[in-house]
Amino acid sequence: MPELPxxxxxxxxxxxxxxxxxxxxxxIRRPNLRWPFPDGMAQRLAGQRxxxxxxxxxxxxCDLGSGETLIIHLGMSGRMLIHTPEETSTPGVFxxxxxxxxxxxxxxxxxxxxxxxxxxxxxxxxxxxLCLTDQAEFHKMLASLGPEPLGNAFDEAYLIAAFKNRxxxxxxxxxxxxLVAGLGNIYVCEALWRAHISPEAKTKTLSAKRTSSLxxxxxxxxxxxxxxxxxxxxxxxxxxxxxxxxxxxxxVYGREGEPCRTLDCKGKISRIVQSGxxxxxxxxxxx
DNA sequence: CTGCACGCCTGCCCGC
DNA sequence: TGCGGGCAGGCGTGCA
Length: 287
Prior knowledge:
By secondary structure, this protein is of the alpha+beta class. About 20% of the residues lie in helices and about 25% in strands. The chain has helices at about 5-20, 40-45, 155-165, 170-175, 185-195, 210-225; strands spanning about 25-30, 50-55, 60-65, 70-75, 80-85, 85, 95, 105-110, 115-120, 125-130, 270-275, 275-280. A four-stranded antiparallel β-sheet has the order 1-8-9-5. Strands 2-3-4-10 form a four-stranded antiparallel β-sheet, with helices on one face. Strands 6-7 form a two-stranded antiparallel sheet. A hairpin with a 4-residue loop joins β8 (about 105-110) and β9 (about 115-120). It is globular. The model has no long low-confidence stretch (mean pLDDT about 95).
């Protein structure tokens, strides 16, 4: 999926066209994504004002006037694309040219202002569900998530405690959403490279100092990626259809065999598989 | 409890 | 050109 920076970029793109607007109509074009849509989703969304869009980890939370919240997850390949009505030759008169739904357009929100938001997800690992807004944090998709990496609860003391007594490689620990919520394969690889820590290092063997060094490194890489509009690989687009460009800043991800970018390091980037997923790192400067 | 393999889906890219 | 295999940003389940 899009990881935290991509989801945050999507949220920021959607907020100006959705917040404060009413969902005139919701079109659900298939019965499910990863799981069945909730009962009566289209009717429960129609006529509801979007109070605000929030993000928790890699989930977008859409708070509605009805007191319900629409939880959206983009899975691996989900996109939210905005179609804006076009102004005709008469100033102030807008015309909505309905683009024919494309392959894998599964859900379409039509807002009162004529803007359409299309959820497209080829692999259908994405999900949507509705719950009461004040119960959202207890929803089963969100209940066991760890702290936000950009929030105050994610600090040096927390990470040291979380790593203690854990025997797993640090790569898999950081991918564990219960430990910290929102990192994925790309940003874990990038953060470990910045911290000069081997993805194979066992968490409990790391010194407090090295563990602590990861906290600002994780924050920095996520914030820089958000600033860049996220990373665009095969599927991801910002909500306005633009590409993010953080992929040009990758130090290790997807760079197998290429030179390490650490100053004065003459290493080459290796690819290994951990827990069935590719890990990219430099054996020379990551220990 | 932990750690890991697997399945869910489609599309793309590479080698033959 | 076609086909098979491997790969892909996630996450829940089930097993040891």
